[in-house]
Structure formats: structure tokens, C-alpha cells
DNA sequence: AGTTTGGGTGTACGTGTGTACACCCAAACT
DNA sequence: AGTTTGGGTGTACACACGTACACCCAAACT
């Protein structure tokens, strides 16, 4: 039971992050109080300040953490063979799987993206922009997009990300895991429609 | 200065609705307090109950009101000739115009759709579902979709609505009206891409 | 061994919150 | 003319909030 000081601090910090994520799950960060978090963690309110200077900075830490989960998902998706064959099915499956496993993180992103303190909102939008940009460079490697302008790639990427964010949000508010299938099925069809649109883009002059 | 009783009541009710909409603009309904609203309106807190039984029911009233604005937009969009020629440009223009004019209502929908009290969230999602359904029946009238299944129509409609909601949210968080052009331009391109996808859908067997 | 450091504690404050209760008074009914 | 109705008032309560301050004590340095 010898526990070094930094270990103990890290443990409490983790507890605060977890409590914050759990407590704002029904409502939002802006409705989350420092005292609620402290009570949940089992520390006195003022001890909170030893780890974060405000609820908002807790929120920013949660943004970082949530996007670690999201980027892990993107990595999984990316390491498939870049073929049109099963890319849609694979991607949607991986999305659904990650949303299931890290539900709280994805829910946090979806929720605080629209509501949430301005700083947190901005941080999330910035991260999503980065994801869009990454997707755009990936799309550029796919066969058939050689002649595309950078702008069109960005616009397509934005459309795909938007649709996938919406899919994630739908999956999160799915009451039971059983209700996931129609949602993923819709997402698959939509991705295919967009892909068909992309493949026929600019071929008409 | 003769004012009937129902007139006066209606006037206060309006003031409460307006104050509620304005106050939750930065934050969210869940962070809105009855006392804030009362102070803004200029009545004593308990007088609030003469009009709404809780903040949440105020929220439901605001949902109704906001969707009146949104449906007005849909009506405007619909009454264009159903041709592919300028349907995209027209629709996006009308969207941007209505978002500008009824910014608070559209912002409310976008915000409380994700955060916001569960009842309010559900009400908004239900209304959006209705819009999707309406759009699907409209799409069925367009030339080229005769052979489509009802399910595919619904899926396409969902994709379009999702993209337009995202566009509206981007327009709302645009700092200046001048920043609108790239956003609408993106929306236009995306709609065209989706349309190209739709037109080539199922023609491949 | 002696001192410093720092996470956690307990008390205390002013303020904001929802809501209960008794009350007022002019418009609206009889 | 007399009574009822109902929007608005004022006081009061128990609670939750953020935060300031003095304090504790074991791990970490010297």
C-alpha cells in the first residue's frame, strides 16, 4: 500500500475526469457544478482546484481525452486496404464498434460540440476540422480522385464527416444495442450514395 | 391604454418566451433558471408559474415556435419549380436567408437537439423526423426517382437533412455575415454531389 | 533528523436557486 | 352593485453554488 505522491495525484485526477464525464452525461458541462464532481469523487469541493482551475478546463481535458478515442477509431479505419470493395462496410462497422466501446467520449463530443462552454466548443470544432483535413488527404489517395481540386476534396470530406457524426449521435441515443442495425444500414447506404456521387463527379464536364 | 386581461396575459407570455430564447442563447435550456427569466421579463419569480409549469415546458413551447419558423422555410423552398436546374442554388439561398432572419430559432433547435432536457430533445428529433418524411415524399415527385424504394428515399432524405442542419449550424456560428459565402458554397457543392449520387443510384444494376 | 511541499480538510461567506404561502387589486362576470 | 377570478406581489425557507482562508500531515527533499 505504498503509493507515491504523483501516483496518488494521478489517481484523483482520473477520478475527477471520470466523474465529470459521467455526471455531465445527462445534461451538459455548463450545467455541471464543481461540488457535484467533488461529491462524486469523494473529496471536498476546494480540493478540486488542486487538479483543475475550473470546470471549463476540466472540459478541455475531456476534449483531449475524447479525441484520443476518436483518433484511435480513425486509425483503425485507415488501416484497411484502400479499395472500394468493402471500405464502406468496414468503416461503418468500426464506427459502430468504437461508439459502443467509448460511448461516453463520443456522446461528450456530440453534446458539447453544440452546447458547452465556448472554449470547449471551439476546441471540439478545431479537432473535427483536423479530422476532415486528414480524411481529405486520405481520399486523395483513392483511385478516381486524381483530377479533383483540393477544395472539392475538402467539401466531400466535410460531407462524409458530417454524416458520420450524425450516425454516431444516432447510435448513442439508440435505446438498445439491438436498435443499431437500421442505423448502421442507413449509414452504409448513405456512404455508398455519396461515393457514387463522388465517382461520377467531374466526369460530366 | 385599455388592455383586456387575455391581451395582457398573452403579452407577458410572449415576453417570457422571448426572454427564455434570448437567455439560453449562450449556454442552454438546462442552464437556464426560472429566476433569470423572471428578472429579464420584469416580473417576480413566482409569477412565472402563471404561464408555464416549469422551464422544461417553456422549452417545449419554444420548440413549437422554432419549428414554425423552420416549416416556413420549408414552404418557401418547396414552392419552387421542381426542376434540377436551380433547385440547389435556390434552396441554399433560402436556407441562408431564413437562418439569418430567425437566427435564434435555428440556433435553439441546433443547440437543444443535442443538449437540452430529454423531453425537449425528443420533441426536436420528432419534428426533424417529420421534416425528413416530408422531404422524402417531395423527392419521390422528382423525375428520376420513380424506381426508388421508399427506404432509399428516406435514407437520401435523411442525408440531405443532416447536411442542411450542419450547414445551418455553421451559418449560425459564422462570426460575420460576410463569412457566409464559403459556407453556402460548400453546401451547394455537397447538395450537387449528393444529387449526382442519387441520379446514378440503382442505374448500376 | 529537520524542513519543505502539496493534496486533502473544515468552516464560513455571500449569492442564486426553486417553491410555498398569504396577499393585492382591477378586469370580468352575476 | 357585488362578487369572483386570476395575473402579479412580497416575504420566507431550505438548499446548492463558487470560493476564500486557515489548517493538517505524510511523502519528498535537504
Provide a descriptive summary of the structure in words.
2 copies of one chain form a homodimer. With 205 residues, chain A is mainly alpha-helical. The first copy, chain A, folds into 2 domains: 1-53, Arc Repressor Mutant, subunit A (Orthogonal Bundle); 56-199, Tetracycline Repressor, domain 2, CATH 1.10.357. Helices cover 71% and strands 0% of the residues of chain A. Chain A has helices spanning 5-23, 34-41, 55-78, 87-101, 103-114, 118-141, 150-172, 180-199. In chain A, α1 (5-23) packs across α2 (34-41), α4 (87-101) packs across α5 (103-114) and α6 packs across α7 (150-172). Chain A is elongated and about 65 Å long. The N and C termini of chain A lie far apart (73 Å). Chain A binds a DNA duplex (30 and 30 nucleotides) through residues 3-5, 8-9, 12, 33-36, 43-47, 49-51.
Silhouette of chain A: elongated
How would a textbook summarize the main sheet of chain A? none
Order of helices and strands of chain A: HHHHHHHH
* Spans where pLDDT lies below 50 across 5 or more residues of chain A: none
Question: Rounded to an integer, what's the Rg of chain A over CA atoms?
Answer: 20 Å
- Give the DSSP E fraction of chain A (strand runs of 2 or more residues): under 5%
Q: Given this structure, which CATH class of the largest domain in chain A is correct?
A: Mainly Alpha
**Which protein chains make the most extensive interface, counting residues with beta carbons within 8 Å of the other chain's beta carbons?**
A-B, 35 and 35 residues
Amino acid at each position: 500500500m505504498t503509493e507515491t505522491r504523483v501516483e496518488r495525484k494521478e489517481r484523483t485526477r482520473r477520478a475527477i475526469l471520470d466523474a465529470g464525464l459521467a455526471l455531465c452525461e445527462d445534461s451538459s458541462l455548463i450545467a455541471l457544478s464543481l461540488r457535484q464532481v467533488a461529491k462524486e469523487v469523494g473529496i471536498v469541493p476546494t480540493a478540486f482546484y488542486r487538479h483543475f482551475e475550473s470546470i471549463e478546463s476540466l472540459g478541455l481535458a475531456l476534449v483531449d481525452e475524447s479525441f484520443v478515442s476518436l483518433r484511435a477509431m480513425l486509425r483503425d479505419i485507415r488501416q484497411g486496404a484502400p479499395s472500394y470493395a468493402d471500405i464502406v462496410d468496414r468503416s461503418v462497422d468500426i464506427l459502430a464498434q468504437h461508439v459502443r466501446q467509448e460511448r461516453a467520449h463520443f456522446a461528450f463530443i456530440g453534446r458539447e460540440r453544440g452546447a458547452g462552454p465556448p472554449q470547449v466548443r471551439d476546441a471540439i470544432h478545431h479537432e473535427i476540422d483536423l479530422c476532415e483535413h486528414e480524411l481529405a488527404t486520405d481520399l486523395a489517395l483513392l483511385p478516381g480522385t486524381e483530377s479533383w481540386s483540393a477544395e472539392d476534396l475538402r467539401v466531400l470530406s466535410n460531407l462524409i464527416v458530417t454524416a458520420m457524426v450524425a450516425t454516431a449521435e444516432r447510435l448513442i441515443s439508440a435505446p438498445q444495442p439491438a436498435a443499431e442495425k437500421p442505423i448502421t444500414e442507413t449509414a452504409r447506404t448513405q456512404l455508398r450514395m455519396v461515393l457514387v456521387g463522388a465517382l461520377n463527379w467531374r466526369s460530366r464536364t
